[in-house]
């Protein structure tokens, strides 16, 4: 029989997680819990009383040996770290003010992040890397230097990212060299880019690619922050980006269906000149975009353009999209409002 343990503020959550073992359910009471946590056992469920009611904040000492955030120093701490385990669920709590990520999941399978609030975590909100079969659902993520929700180098992600709200990040949702992901019904506003999916290569990183994904029925508006243009600012390692609702860079066989991209206006320089972009990533070490299906999207009220399609438009399928000014103009499959 799987164990279930109830933990109150002031009690040692890490000790309880370690002792409870595989398959346990650890329930956190309402209140504030200082310190970082490391989930080491498979099948563990860590469940709070709800976002804003159960709150994890920095404090105390980190668990000895906790894996550091990728490309960050050992002094950079995430709220919850999950590494090399399967079947973990984290649900119903807030993660606020950590110097790394709110949740950092690396080389995991079938991990579920549900009904979480990741607020003002310095680098990432909810960061899933080199993993498969993960779900991020009904979460809220804001105030991170890079992404609110990120899938990074998940080559066979089989991921489900749905019903989340992101704001105040460089990228609301970042699909970084990850394939076979489904992004549906998310709301991204007040970021530099709402949804950014990029295929590019980095020295020493796994093979990249963004293929066979579904990005559908997302509401992407008011993304006007400026990233990549100020040292120490939002997305400082990337190129300048602002005013982007949805961008697919170097993607292949991706379906962009029924997204509402509206009222996105740049506040700073941007390598992308419209709110909806499909383009090559070859100059970033990636591939040309081809074989994508762009269907039934509403792209209206954005500046300076509603859409930009780079390369050969004949490499993609466009049908029943509604938009104002775009490049190239008079493109088949796009009609004015």
From TrEMBL:
SUPFAM superfamilies: Pectin lyase-like
One of the Pfam families matching this protein, by short name: Beta_helix
InterPro entries assigned: Beta_helix, PbH1, Pectin_lyas_fold, Pectin_lyase_fold/virulence
Record domain Right handed beta helix: where: 102-274
Protein name: Nitrous oxide reductase family maturation protein NosD
Taxonomic source organism: Nonomuraea insulae
């Amino acid at each position: 029989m799987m164990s279930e343990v109830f933990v109150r503020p002031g009690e040692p959550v890490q000790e309880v997680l370690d002792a409870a073992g595989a398959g346990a359910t650890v329930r956190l009471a309402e209140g504030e819990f200082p310190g970082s946590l490391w989930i080491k056992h498979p099948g563990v469920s860590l469940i709070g009383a709800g976002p804003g009611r159960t709150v994890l904040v920095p404090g105390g000492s980190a668990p000895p040996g906790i894996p550091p955030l990728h490309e960050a120093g050992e002094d950079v701490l995430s709220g919850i770290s999950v590494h090399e385990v399967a079947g973990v669920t984290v649900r119903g709590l807030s993660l606020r003010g950590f110097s790394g990520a709110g949740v950092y999941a690396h080389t995991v399978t079938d991990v579920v992040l549900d009904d979480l609030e990741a607020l003002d975590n310095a680098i990432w909100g909810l960061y899933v890397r080199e993993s498969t079969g993960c779900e991020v659902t009904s979460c809220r993520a804001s105030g991170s230097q890079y992404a609110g929700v990120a899938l990074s180098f998940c080559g066979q992600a089989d991921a489900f990212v749905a019903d989340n709200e992101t704001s105040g990040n460089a990228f609301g949702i970042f699909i970084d060299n990850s394939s076979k992901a489904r992004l549906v019904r998310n709301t991204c506003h007040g970021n530099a880019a709402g949804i950014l999916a990029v295929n590019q290569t980095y020295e020493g990183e796994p093979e990249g690619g963004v293929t066979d994904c579904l990005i559908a029925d997302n509401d992407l508006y008011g993304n006007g922050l400026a990233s990549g243009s100020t040292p120490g600012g939002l997305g400082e390692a990337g190129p300048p980006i602002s005013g982007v609702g949805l961008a697919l860079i170097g993607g292949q066989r991706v379906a962009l269906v029924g997204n509402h991209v509206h009222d996105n206006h740049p506040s700073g320089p941007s390598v992308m000149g419209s709110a909806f972009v499909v383009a090559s990533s070859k100059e970033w070490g990636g591939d040309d975009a081809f074989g994508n299906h762009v269907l039934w999207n509403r792209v209206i009220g954005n500046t300076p353009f509603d859409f930009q399609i780079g390369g050969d438009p004949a490499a993609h399928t466009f049908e029943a999209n509604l938009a104002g000014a775009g490049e190239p103009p008079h493109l088949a499959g796009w009609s004015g409002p």
